[in-house]
Amino acid sequence: MATKRMDVLVYSGNGSTVESVRHCLYSLRRLLSPTYAVITVTGNAIIKEPWTASCALLVFPGGADLGYCRTLNGEGNRRISQYVERGGLYLGFCAGGYYGSKRCEFEVGKKAMEVVGNRELAFFPGTCRGCAFSGFVYHSEEGTRAVQLRTSKAALSKGTVPDVFRSYYNGGGVFVDAPQLNHRGVEVLASFTEELEVDAGEGSACVVYCKVGDGAAVLTSTHPEFAASNLDPTINLPGYDKIVKALKEDDQQRTDFLKACLLKLGLQVSQEQTAIPSLSRLHLSSAETADTSRLIEALRDIIAEQDGEEYIVDENDTFHLEKPSRWSLGSIADALPSMTDGSSEQREEENGDDQEKIIDYDKIVKRLVIHDADQPESKDTPYFNHHAYVANLKHYESQSRGSGRTFGKELLYGEVVTSTNTLLEK
Questions:
Q1: How many H helices and E strands in the chain?
Q2: Residue 148 and residue 189: Cα distance in Å, rounded?
Q3: How far is residue 423's CA from residue 392's CA, in Å, rounded to a whole number?
Q4: How confident is the model at residue 251 (pLDDT cuts 50, 70, 90)?
């Protein structure tokens, strides 16, 4: 029986930027949940792990495609190509668009910036040439524009497709002579409407669909995954606030276009944007409740006390140790992007738009409830019955020998978590 492909993997390795990855996760989770699980993937995992069977879509975000090449040239790209040719899907934003083209030409003639070379994936069988507009500076918003795109409704037959809309741009290229490559499975999904600063050949394609074997790729020059609500209009650059304002005015059209691109790839898209659920508490328990206390004592060296509360601060996460009777609602305000330098109290008094912005889940304190007197009650964990679990575990132990008597005795349970690998290993 074939494995259902339900993972949308966003590359977060060498070459990607933290902000671009976060924008991808934010937008794709809202459009593809709950059908797909949108998670990150590293270069090492692409090269070594068995990800292809469960991957519905592989996404390469903005960044610098030379970093992608250094990590994935050879075996990594061989696996990506094979995955797409056998029915997989690839989505490349900006740097991911350069990377998915046969040839990358970036800032040719500008010695400190120039990047020129062939690329191994070659989903677009031509050249992606940039920058389409001048002003790009690495790790900066200086080259940002709200560029107008004209869509191709003939190529985008599903969904609500706007005629034109403005999209975030910062350093992307143009897909040279894209209309001439129709016979090779290329379709132009959107084009720039403004005059470009590089030779685009025929047309001015900024979003293309490429048929690749049994699979397909969509490559973009702009960032239709960037929502205006996640951009800071107070950045001290001339006119940046007006760029954010323009993008906000066209945000619905941006969302509709991104939906149409995902539908073009054959994905199931949510009709309404799905809210991301809040993190749940973690529950630590043992088959014998006394073992929970012993486990906490074994961790005593890494437990810190602050204002009478106990915490474990590790490499990536902070855990607040609680007893069931000490639950409190807490707040995620400090983990939300700040529009000012004010306090969390000041931010809470603002208009409440924070829930529509990117949340840095690494900064949220994870609440770890220690059950050292009894098992968690079903009202606390409605999707998992701890009492039934322990009863069945003891029955299993009575029928087992050796290692079966220790398997599953300690349990850490959570209903909505971040990354289990990160929580357990970092």
A1: 11, 19
A2: 14
A3: 27
A4: very high
Separation of alpha carbons 260 and 104, rounded Å? 26
What is the amino acid identity at position 116?
V
Residue appearing with tokens 């995954």: 225
Measure the CA–CA gap between 268 and 266, rounded to whole angstroms.
Answer: 7
CB atoms within 10 A of CB 257: 27
Q: Could you read off the pLDDT of 133-153 as tens digits, one per residue?
A: 999 998 899 999 999 999 999
Instruction: Give, for 391, the enclosing helix (H) or strand (E).
Output: helix 386-399
**Of 98-102, 301-305, 360-364, which gets the smallest average pLDDT?**
360-364
CA 25-143-72 angle, to 5 degrees, is 50
Q: What is the pLDDT of residues 303-342, one digit of tens each?
A: 999 988 999 998 888 999 998 864 444 444 444 444 333 3
Q: Nearest-CA neighbor of 259 among 149, 157, 154, 159?
A: 159
Burial class, 349, CB count within 10 angstroms (exposed 0-12 / middle 13-18 / buried 19+): exposed
Three-state secondary-structure class, residue 346: helix
Beta-strand ranges (E) seen in 250-328 are 282-286, 303-306, 309-313, 318-322
**Closest to 220 (Cα-Cα) out of 64, 62, 93, 127:** 93
Distances, alpha carbon 308 to alpha carbons 111, 311, 320, in Å: 58, 10, 11
Find the Cα–Cα–Cα–Cα dihedral 22, 23, 28, 34, rounded to 10°.
50
- Among candidates 331, 361, 363, which has minimal Cα distance to 348? 331
The CA-based angle 155-28-244, given to 5 degrees, is: 85
- DSSP assignment of 126-190 equals EEEEE-SSS---TTSSTT-EEEEEEE-TTT--SS---SEEEEEESS-EEETTGGGGGGGTEEEEE
Q: Which residue has the higher pLDDT, 407 or 16?
A: 16
Q: What is the sign of the dihedral through the CA atoms of 43, 46, 51 and 52?
A: positive
Q: What are the structure tokens assigned to 302, written together?
A: 């890494």
Single-letter amino acid code for the residue at 62: G
Give the separation between CA 370 and CA 382, rounded to whole angstroms. Answer: 17
Q: DSSP label at 16?
A: B
What are all long-range contacts of 65-68, with beta carbons under 8 Å and residues at least 24 apart?
A: 65/15, 65/95, 65/96, 65/98, 65/99, 65/104, 65/115, 65/119, 66/15, 66/115, 67/13, 67/14, 67/15, 67/16, 68/11, 68/13, 68/14, 68/15, 68/16, 68/95, 68/96, 68/99
Query: Beta strand pairing status for 309-313 and 318-322?
Result: antiparallel
pTM for this entry:
0.78
